[in-house]
Design brief:
With about 325 residues, this protein is α+β, with helices and mostly antiparallel strands. Helix content is about 40%, strand content about 15%.
C-alpha cells in the first residue's frame, strides 16, 4: 500500500539515473530514491515484487510460516505477469532483479508500524538456483527488504485486477495503482491533475502530463480498458468511477493486522467452528474489527475465540 500511495518506481522506459525526492501533502513523510549504475527500478520491474508478495500472502492465508526469502520458478512469474517466455522475457527478468536490488530508498514512511530511516534496497538479494542447459533461469531465490516484508506481515496489501499486467504504458499502471489505493471501493474519487502528477512521479511538464492523461481517458472512454475504474477528465481534475469489480475486502489498520494469536487458539477455533478454515475466520475477525472502528483487544486470543463461537451460532457448518 505504501508503494501504491507514493512514487517508488520510475515511469521511464529508458535507464533513469535521477535521484528523486518526494514529500507528501503534509510535508512530514518523505521518500528519496537513488539509482544504481543500471538506473532506477521501473514500474514494470514492480511485477517481480507483486508476484513475490502474492506467493507470501497465499502461504499466510494457508497458515504456513513465511520469511523474507521467496523461491519461485522464473517461467511461472513470466506467465503470471503477462510477459513473453522466450529469451527476451528471461533477459528482462534478470535486468529487473538487478535494478530492484540496486535501487536504494531512504524514507520515514512506516510499514507494519515500523519506521525505516536507514538506506535500503527494494530487494536485498536475488540468486539463480537452477538454470536450463541454454543458460535460462529456472529457479530464483529472492530476499525482500525489511520495509517490504513488514508491510506484508501487517497485511498492508491490496489486491490488483489481473488485467493490471496487460497495461503496457507506465502511466496507465501508475494511475491504476493510485486509484486502487485512494478510490478503493468508493463509488467515485477525484484528484487534481497537479496532485496526480506529483503522486505519479511523472517528470513531464504539466501541459504534457495533461495530454498524456487525456489520451488514457480517451482510450478508456472508447474501450473501457482500465481495470476496476473508469477514468474521466473534469476540467483540471481526474475522476475515477468504480466499475464494481474491486475484490471484496476491508483494509485492516496496522494495529489490528499486527495482532499475533497463540498457535493453540487456532486449534481451539477449529473445535468451536468445525468445517471452517480458521485463517478465513481470522481475516473475517480482523475485518469485522476494522469495519466497526474497534481498537485492538486486550486479550486477542479470547476475543478471537468469542468471534468464532458467534460465527458458528449464526452460520452453522459450511
Amino acid at each position: 500500500m505504501a508503494s501504491m500511495a507514493h512514487p517508488v518506481f520510475s515511469l521511464s522506459t529508458r535507464p533513469d539515473h535521477r535521484t528523486r525526492r518526494y514529500e507528501d501533502e503534509s510535508g512530514k513523510a518523505y521518500l528519496e530514491i537513488r539509482p544504481s549504475a543500471e538506473g532506477l527500478a521501473t514500474i514494470h520491474d514492480r511485477d517481480v515484487l507483486i508476484y513475490c508478495i502474492s506467493q507470501i500472502m497465499s502461504a499466510l492465508n494457508k497458515g504456513h510460516k513465511v520469511s523474507r526469502t521467496v523461491r519461485l520458478k522464473a517461467h511461472d512469474l513470466l506467465k503470471a505477469t503477462n510477459r513473453v517466455t522466450d529469451g527476451r522475457g528471461y533477459d528482462g527478468l534478470k535486468a529487473a532483479l538487478v535494478r530492484l536490488q540496486g535501487t536504494q530508498i531512504e524514507t520515514n514512511i512506516a510499514t507494519g508500524g515500523t519506521e525505516q530511516l536507514d538506506l535500503f534496497s527494494i530487494i536485498d538479494r536475488a540468486r539463480i538456483i537452477r538454470e536450463t542447459r541454454d543458460g535460462r533461469m529456472q529457479e530464483i531465490e529472492i530476499e525482500l527488504s525489511d520495509w517490504v516484508f513488514n508491510a506484508i506481515s501487517a497485511h498492508e496489501v491490496l489486491t490488483l485486477h489481473r488485467n493490471y499486467f496487460r497495461l503496457r504504458k507506465p502511466l496507465e499502471r501508475r494511475i491504476y495503482e493510485i486509484a486502487r489505493k485512494h478510490c478503493g471501493r468508493q463509488k467515485e474519487w477525484r484528484i487534481s491533475l497537479a496532485a496526480l502528477q506529483r503522486k505519479s512521479g511523472s517528470s513531464s511538464t504539466s501541459r504534457e502530463f495533461k495530454r498524456l492523461v487525456g489520451a488514457i481517458v480517451e482510450q478508456d472512454e472508447s474501450y473501457g480498458h482500465m481495470p476496476d475504474y473508469a477514468v474521466r477528465l473534469d476540467g483540471d481534475y481526474v475522476v475515477f468511477i468504480n466499475r464494481g469489480t474491486v475484490a471484496s475486502e476491508t483494509e485492516v489498520p496496522a494495529e489490528l493486522a499486527g495482532i499475533r494469536l497463540d498457535p493453540e487458539s487456532y486449534d481451539a477455533a477449529r473445535s468451536l467452528a468445525p468445517g471452517w478454515d480458521v485463517h478465513h475466520l481470522e481475516q473475517a475477525w480482523r475485518s469485522w474489527m476494522a469495519e466497526g472502528g474497534l481498537d485492538a483487544p486486550r486479550d486477542p486470543d479470547r476475543a478471537f475465540l468469542g468471534f468464532c463461537r458467534k460465527w458458528m451460532e449464526k452460520r452453522g457448518r459450511p
